[in-house]
Structure formats: C-alpha cells, structure tokens
Amino acid sequence: MTTTRPHASGSLQLVSLASAALILLPLGYVTALALSADLAVWQRLWATRIPELLLNTLSLAGTVSLLTLVLGISTAWLITRYEFPGRRVWEIALVLPLAMPTYVLAYVFNYLLGFGGPVEQLWQSVAGPHARIFSPQSLWGATVVMALDTFPFVYLLTRSALLSMNVSFEEAARTCGLSRARTMFRVTLPLLRPSIAAGTALVILYVVSDFGAVSLLRYQTLTYAVYQQMTGRSDNTAASILSILLVALALAFLLTERWFRHKSRFYQTTGRYRISQRMSCDGLTTSWITAYLAAVVGASFGIPASLLIHWSLSPEAQAILDARFFGFVWNSAVLSTLAATAGVTIGLPMAYLASRKPTWLNLGCLQAAYAGYVLPGPVAALAVLVLVLNLTPFMYGTAIVLVIAYVLHFLPVGLQSLEPALQQITPNLEEAARTLGVGVRDTWRRVTLPLIRNGFIAAWVLMFLQTMKELPATLLLRPVGFDTLAVRVWLEASEEYYQLAAPSALLIVLVGLPALALLLSRDWRAA
Amino acid sequence: MATDSQSPRAGTKQLGSQADLYAPASPILELRSVSCAYEPTRPAVRDISFSAREGEILCLLGPSGCGKTTILRAIAGFEPVRSGEIFLSNRLVSSSSGTIPTEERRIGMVFQEYALFPHLRAADNIAFGLGHLARPERERRIQEMLQLTGLEGLDRRYPHELSGGQQQRVALARALVQNPVVLLLDEPFSNLDPDMAGRMRLDLLALLRRMKTTAVLVTHDHDEAFAMADRIAVLNHGVLEQLDKPEVIYHLPATPFVADFVGQADFVTGRIQHGLAHTELGEFPNTLGSAEGTSVVVMIRPDDVHLIPNTSAEPRIVARQFRGSENLYAVRLGSGQIIHSSARSTSVYSEETAVEVRIAATHTVLFPADLISPQTGGDTDSPASRAGTGPG
C-alpha cells in the first residue's frame, strides 16, 4: 500500500505535466516566431495592416456588444418580470441561436440581406423601386449576424442574475422613497452590472475570435487576417505577429469577464431571499411582448432554420446527398470522436490533480489547459502547424495534426464539465473507501469514476459537438481532399451555392441542439 | 378567542392606567380588521386590529408561519389587504379598494437579511433615500446617523466588508435617517449570534427611545419581545391572540397558546367547588367565574412553584436541568402529572427526592379545561419549553 500511492499519483503527475507541455509548446513556438521576426516585418505590418485590422475588430466588437446589450437585457427582463402565455417556450427559444454556428447564420444573411434578396425586395415595395439597404458584407452586416448569434450570452447571464436577485433590495429602495421606475435605474440595473459586463465580455471574446462570419461576409478582422496570411501569402511570420496581438486582445477580454464574474458574487445574496413576482399582463401587453420576442427569435433562429430546411428539400440539394456527402459526415464524426476522446483522456488527470492536490504545479497545469480559450481557431491552427513543421514534419498533412489542434482549442470546454464534477464529490468519499481497505485504483474505479460519470460524459459530448462545427483550424490543417461538414458549408457558401450548403448546415445545427441542452442543464435555474 | 380584536386598547384596561397617560387621540399607526389574501406560499392573516402610539415599540410575536411578517409587509405596502384598513398618521394607506405605494408612505424598514445595496458604500447606502436634500444637509444627516449608530470610520466600506452587526447598524441608519413615521423591523436579530444580538438589542432600544421612533418589530423570540416592547401582539395562525404589555402577556395570558408560547407553563386540571378551583396543588380563586362543577385548568409558571424536601410527601423529583442561574426541576405529582419548578442554582436535590410542592402565585390564570389540547398541555416538546432553554 505504501508503495502504490506515490506511484499512482506520480504517473498521473507525469501525464498532467506532459499535457500542459503539449498545450504550451505550440504557443511558445508562435510567440518565439513572432518575437524573432525581422523588425522590418513588424514595421511593415504596423504601417499597413494593423491599424485598419484593429479598428475593424474593435468597431465590430463595439457595435455587436451594443446590440447584444439591447437584445439580451430586454429579453431577459421580459422573461423574468412578466407572466404571459407562452413565456416558458420563449424562455428556451431565446437560447436557440447558440446552436447556429456564425458561418451558417452569416451565409443565410448573405442571401437575406444580399443584392435583390428578400429583405431588399420587401424594402423596395415600401420605399420605392430604387431603395437600397445596407450590404451584408459590411460592418453593419457583420454586426447584425454576430449580435443575433451571441445575444443569448447576455440574455442567459442577465436572466439568471435577475432570477437570483433578492427582491428585498428593490423593496428597500421603495421604503427609501423611490418609485418603481427609479428603483430599476438606481438599484436593479446597477446590481445586474457585473453579470451584464461578464456577458458582454464573453460576446466580445466571441466576436474577436470569430472566423466563420467575418470570412463569409468578407469583413477584415484580425482573426480573418491571420487566416489570409497563412493561406494567401503563406507568411507564417506575419501571421504569428497578428496572432500575438489577437491573443493579447482576447486575454484582456477574458480577464475582464473573469473579474466581473468574480465581482458578481458579492452581489448575490446568500441564505434566504425572496424572488420578485412576475407581473401578469393584459391582452395588449401580451401581444406586444410576443411580437417583440417573435421578431428576435425569428431573425436569429426561426427564419434561418426554415430557410435551411427549405433549401435542403430543393432538388439541387437532394442531388448531392450521395456517398460523397456521407463521406463528409463520416470524416466529421471520426475526427470529433478522436478529439473528444483525446480531450477527456488528457483533461481528467489534470482536473483530478488540481482538485485533490492543489499544488502550485498542478494548478498551473490546469490553467495552461485553459489557454485554448484565448486562441482563435486560426491561431490554434498556426501554433500547431509551426510546432509540427519544426519538430515532426512527417506528421504534416495528416489527421493527427488536426486532432492536436482540436484538443488544444476545445480542452477548456471539456474541463468546464470535468472540474465541477470532481469538486462536487468530497474527498471524504475516497478516503472512506480507503479506510474500508480498497486500494487507490479500485477506489478510482468503484467510487470516483461512477460519481463523475455524468460530468465525464458531458465533457466528451461537448468536445465532440464543438469539433463537429469547427471551421478555421479544419480549413487550414486538413489533409488534402479531406472535407468535413463545416468545411463543405463554408466552401459552398463562399461560392453562394445556398442550396448545396444547406444539408450540411442543417445537420450541424441539429447536432448542435443537444450540446445546447447539455450546456444549459448545468446552470438553468427554473423559477 | 382573541380578546383584543375588537378594541385596540382593551388590553390596557385590565393592566392599569399608566399606559393611558400619554395616549393621544389619534395613533400613528392603526390597523382596522385587516385581512390579507391567502396565497399558498404565504400565511394568511385574519381580522387583525391594533394601533401604535407615537414613540411606542410594538412587537409582533408568534411562531413561524403565524403571519407576523405578512402584517409587517402589509403596513409597508408590499402586501395588498383583502379587507380592512391601515392608517398611517391618520391617512388611509391600505384598503381593499386601493394601496398607496410604499415610497409614499414614509416608512422605514430593516429587512431580515438587511438588504444593503452591495454596489454602494455604507455612507451611500445611508444616503440612498436622501436625494431630495442639498449636499451639505445630506452630509450632515449621514454623519449624525453614523455617529448615533456607532459606525464612525466605516462609511467608506462596502457591505461585504462589514460584519453582521455592522451591516445591521447600516440598515438601521438607512431606515432612520429619513425620519420615518414608523420603523418596521423584520426579525432584526435573527442573523446575529446570541451574544451580539443581546448587545444590539440594548443599543437599538436606547436609539429608538432617544429618537422617539415609533417601531413595529417582528420576532419569534419572546425574550427579545420582552426586552424591547412596550406592548406585544401575540399571533397564532394569522389571528391576534393577545395584545398587551409584556408583564401582562407573561402573567395574565389570554389563551393557553399565549401562556405556553411566552414561557414555560404547566397546566394543572381542577374542578370548581364552593366557588374555588380545587386541584391537587390546592385551591385557587375562580377567576373565570365558572359554574359549580365545571372542569378547569390552572396555569402554573415554574417560578411560582417552590419545593420543600419532605420525606412523607408524595411528589417526586424526576429530573434536574442546570441552567446556570437556576435549577429547573421536573416533579411528578401523585396523579402522575409533571410540573416544573425553578429553584436557586445552589439548592440541589437529587432525583427521586420526595418534595412538598407550594404554589406562591401573585396571579391566578384559569382556562376552561376544553381549551387545553395535548399540544399545549405542558409536554416538553412544545415551542415554549424549547424557547425557554434559550439565554435569559
């Protein structure tokens, strides 16, 4: 017994350290590449591309966060403070846009808002035959698409903050002589501030690292530029410099989000509290609310999804549902299975060590694993590519490179399910098993694993589904002729073959729904 | 059952006239036959009437779920009334036909969990309702309140940086700084540890007296009610059982529930014969005026029972509970009934000691025997005996 224990945890330690190294090494290579670049390259980029890219990226982040704030807060307020027929249905429907990858929404809006598209026709029938609307391939087009896709982040965080808010705060304000409206501005909204800020930071993080929408809408952001440098010019050095900039930007918003989330804990009441009662609505109010929610959900999910179904049923789309199409499905499934399995295998020892032996080293390994959060897809691809070209060039162009990039990119998603699952079981249970004469390995098998089974499965499924819809890393690293569903959607949509892209897109959305259910069941608080 | 639901001042009649000396013609707060709508989640209250005079501290006392908080929230305007009226400073604020919003009632409230705004510093919390004042005046009032509540130097802290007692004082300052017509306190001491609660009680009482604040305090702890209140309203199942001065509530409870809830009580059965209530502990005056031959019960408090060791006596000591300042004895009478006696902590008798039981009561409280249910009949699990083991 005395020899097993150090041995077992020693090998775990080794796995954990190796995984952390695997994750940090590519990052290190990219950083080294960027820093060792000729000063002239830096100067050239600063003089030409960077100001424009930064401006584009930040203005998109700004406009999207404004629009998501309006959409997210208003919908969360209506859902939590009013009682009307169908409220519960809308409460869930408002989350559905998250199941739609940005490139799918972008391609649908390319058609909807495009030249001679349905929205323009509608507008011309009102405003005259020569009236024009804004092009989808502009800041405003990208803003609409990204905001409709990401407002659920703000909605979810605001909603749960409103649900867990103690109504005594508002009542105390009333006893201090404030009216209902002033109470909202002086107490309720300030109390929501950390949650709203966390949601907004999440949205911005998403916008900054998005590739799908901006590439289809041809809007130049940093992430898109990294991709272009790698493909169009094959200039990995320039790409790495842009990547460093991008990672710094993403890191800033990630830390902002963490800080506000931490701060919001002070704003929650522990112990007993009462929640606010919903106001019941008359017929007129109900129809206004329903119309608004229907417009939001319709634009972000309903209309795009119906269009995808409509296109998938067209003869052109039916014609491509052949063996080749199922080959793409098979490719996606195999890659996702490999990535998810590798991810949980690497993630579990890290999460276990960090929760049971929170030493500096183990916590550091875990934090390293979260690095994927600030790596936009093209950057993750670049990092792995640079590493493989330098260390193991024979692996270049194989699926292994892809799987490594996926693990690097999506390990945080898996850890977010594994970590709470491990934290929820008290070490006492494992210690109890040990006092009953069961060894380390058997304790794992008979106590720990059965208890964390749900978190383990959730981690696997989430990583599987995220990989399924991953686009930029796949585009950059896939072996020649090896296409996945996401790649097919993007390729067809780039050529504006709307019908041909539809079946793959529809499949991705359908597969995304269970992932959404899984994510929500974790912290969905029914009122 | 309720002796007081008709006239708010009925209780003071039997007590003597001292309280009436400063009774003005119109009370600050008056409830007339208030009933609140029943919701599954909240206790209903029925036909509650009482009033509070200026500067008076009134306690709503009762077990959890008795509706005391509902009454407080109805006064604050958070709870609509189904029937009856609530008056604040002679202004009708709540009735079945309408409710004046909370912010126009000029009430102050201290919430059970304080509800300090977490995004504001202590001073800003206190200043929250003072937006209508000019800055220097506001500053002056805040400083005055900080000083009165002993919060000097803590004004820049956020609520989560304050201890429980400090948080409570900020909540109190926030309510008092507006000079409310009436201050409402919802279980203000329940989140503090007992030592702290005792000190805060004294501080609060002194502060309320100094500012001559009319206050309504909700509590489930009879010691707290005794220590704080000018008058106590005892509630049970949404009905007002008795409203009176603390001494009267304790010594002359109107119902067996009140007798049992505000302190330990035993109920000894007896029968009216020759104009006296005959029990195995002796004769008591027939204060009920019951007819000859009716069954009654006599309420006995442990402090009225004295034990004298006497080997020829029938009652036996069955248990002793040491409480520091006193010993609480359980004594089995000849009939098998258990009664309790508190004795000095220095007089220690062992179990099975035969004792003679003497009753030296200044007040005699009789109830018709059919009012006593087994629940209130002095079994050791009743709420009063549990509360009786608390401090004080």
Characterise the protein shown here.
The complex is a heterodimer of chains A (527) and B (392). Chain A is mostly helical and 527 residues long. Chain A folds into 2 domains: 7-32 and 314-527, MetI-like (MetI-like fold, Orthogonal Bundle); 37-312, MetI-like fold (Orthogonal Bundle), CATH 1.10.3720.10. In chain A, 77% of the residues lie in helices and 1% in strands. Chain A has 23 helices and 2 strands. Chain A has a two-stranded parallel ribbon with strand order 1-2. In chain A, helix 12 crosses helix 17 and helix 15 (323-356) packs across helix 20. The longest helix of chain A has 34 residues, at 323-356. Chain A is globular. The model of chain A is unreliable at 1-6 (pLDDT under 50). Chain B has helices at residues 10-15, 68-76, 122-126, 135-148, 164-176, 194-211, 222-228, 246-251, 256-261, 383-388; strands at 29-36, 45-52, 57-61, 81-88, 91-95, 98-99, 107-110, 182-186, 215-219, 231-236, 239-244, 266-273, 276-279, 282-285, 295-300, 305-309, 316-322, 326-332, 338-344, 355-359, 365-368. In chain B, helix 4 (135-148) packs across helix 5. In chain B, strand 8, helix 6 and strand 9 (215-219) form a beta-alpha-beta unit. In chain B, 23% of the residues lie in helices and 30% in strands. In chain B, strands 7-8-9-3-10-11 form a 6-stranded mixed beta sheet, sandwiched between helices. Chain B has 2 domains: 10-106 and 180-251, Rossmann fold, CATH 3.40.50; 264-379, Beta Barrel (OB fold (Dihydrolipoamide Acetyltransferase, E2P)). With 392 residues, chain B is α+β, with helices and mostly antiparallel strands. The interface between A and B is medium-sized, with 24 and 29 residues.
